[in-house]
Amino acid sequence: MAYFALKASETKVFESDRSSEDRLGSLMFIRSILSWSRRWRQRAQDRRYLSELDDHVLSDIGLTRWDVTRETARPFWQPLNLRS
Questions:
Q1: Is residue 81 domain-resident?
Q2: Residue-range definition of the domain harbouring residue 17
Q3: DSSP assignment string, 3-31
Q4: Tens of pLDDT along 13-66?
């Protein structure tokens, strides 16, 4: 009888460790999704801000209206690429 009780407690310890690993993995997955979401939102905001700049400011930073038009047409999940 003591053998079964010992086995049950060992299994229970193993299961609790496993569930904490699962929770940690889930939290890391959620953090990853939130990080991607923030990055994509920031890219969209940067492109919107870039499109609002006037031609004089764009020439000061070395860009043309065509560069901005091409960049703002790209999807939000692609990184900014202003030097190509």
A1: no
A2: 2-72
A3: HHHHHHHHHHHHHHHHHHHHHHHHHHHHH
A4: 555 556 888 888 999 999 999 999 999 999 999 999 999 999 999 999 999 999
